[in-house]
Design a protein that fits this description.
Layout lengths: L17 H10 L2 H11 L7 E5 L5 H9 L4 E6 L2 H14 L3 E5 L12 E7 L7 H14 E12 L9 H7 L1 H4 L6 H8 L3 E10 L4 E8 L1
Parallel strand pairs: 1-2, 1-4, 2-3, 4-5
Antiparallel strand pairs: 5-7, 6-7
Helix pairs in contact: 2-3, 3-4
Bound molecules: S-adenosylmethionine (SAM).
Amino acid sequence: MTPPDRSYVPAAGHGWALPFYDPLTRLLGVDAARRALVEQAALRPAQRVLDIGCGTGRLIVLVAHLHPDVEVVGLDPDPKALARARRKVERAGVSVQLDRGFADALPYAPASFDRVFSSFMLHHLEPTQKVAALREVRRVLEPGGALHLLDFGGAGPGPRGVLARMLHGGERLRDNFGGRIPVLMTQAGLADAREIGHRAMLFRQIAYYRATA
Ligand SMILES: C[S@@+](CC[C@H](N)C(=O)[O-])C[C@H]1O[C@@H](n2cnc3c(N)ncnc32)[C@H](O)[C@@H]1O
């Protein structure tokens, strides 16, 4: 079923900038950051994995490449990003299901995934959509399954956050700082929500979070 037409903030903030997203993020070291997220999930054979806001597909292709025995699903509202992801999947010769949809209305059955990934997606949501999206994560996770989330983090935006603020607006980024993300996860009914690490990148600090259903 085609999801309703709704607005969303695309990967690089603007539709025209999408072709620059992969080269720019590669340059900024985001590939290594995503790989660390995948390693944290300690995937096992036959698990089902969802990447929400999969964008141009770099994380899902990495998962499918490292874990060919895992079932991988990527979801994004942006048809152009999904088309890029599809080409990447075909080039890599891996098997991945790609779906169009929104984080706060996931088109999946309850308890249908062992792991959910979210990489630089949460700050694209309106403040009011974030807890709704995290509730959806809890719904589609198996009991005991885990969410592994990566996004901008730290105490506050700081001077190096200027680029991110320009791209996404201060309002959406506000929840990324001062320990707000685990609070939102807990509000959504996820358990044991916590930051499990952070690292400095060229443009600003990023943080890794984990929570369980
Ligand atoms: C910065 S990109 C991150 C893409 C990818 N996860 C990565 O690590 O490169 C954010 C992605 O979130 C998607 N997005 C925006 N609003 C969304 C929503 N409501 N639900 C799911 N994804 C959304 C965008 O289309 C975009 O592809």
